[in-house]
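**Sequence, structure tokens**
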Amino acid sequence: MTLDAAELKRWRKSERERLIAARMAIAPAVLESWRQRIDGYLEHSFPGLAHCRLAFCWPIKGEYDARHIARTLRDRGALTALPVVVAPQTPLIFREWHPGVALARGALDIPYPVGSPAIAPDIVLLPMNGWDAQGYRLGYGAGFFDRTLAAMEKKPVTIGISYEFAKLDTIHPQPWDLPMDYVVTERGVYRRDPEGLAYLGEPQGGEPSALSSPVCYANEVKRG
């Protein structure tokens, strides 16, 4: 099915609203259990996260809360950052953030760091309202992340975070839409291959799993 520009805009708006409402209706205890599972998958499938410049997003509307894994990774040596909106229709910048860095409130009442150094992240944990079999992300409609990633001299590894119920057949991607390199949900880890997302399974506890071999070239990303 091919949608014209107006139909696509209406369809994405409707799907976005439906998926956000469904997510916000999920019991907090369930979301917390999913958060803990996703944290574990990230730790065991992407050991390189502990040695990189990691950008994540402040959670809103029942999204995965990356602040917990960010704290864990900072304790192991990672540098963490949050996105900052500079102006409409322009790329984001990322500023270092950890507890103690001042925050202000921006669009959608989302906190952003004030006065800390701007960094170029190695890896971005990116929340997704919806996602499809090719790894494309349904965001909030402003196009900030696609614009930002397209403008970066060195594109970071992108790990989309969502829930299984939010998987769509397609988001009807357009030329400006950029797919995720990986997707992580409460089910497990997916990698984007040429033919689309490949499900790699559910990494187990203990030492980094066998997934570290195909998944974790992120382990080779060193901070600085």
Remarks:
- The first strand starts at residue 53 and ends at 55.
- The chain has a mean pLDDT of 89.
- Helices lie at 5-24, 28-45, 67-75, 144-151, 212-215.
- The radius of gyration is 17 Å.
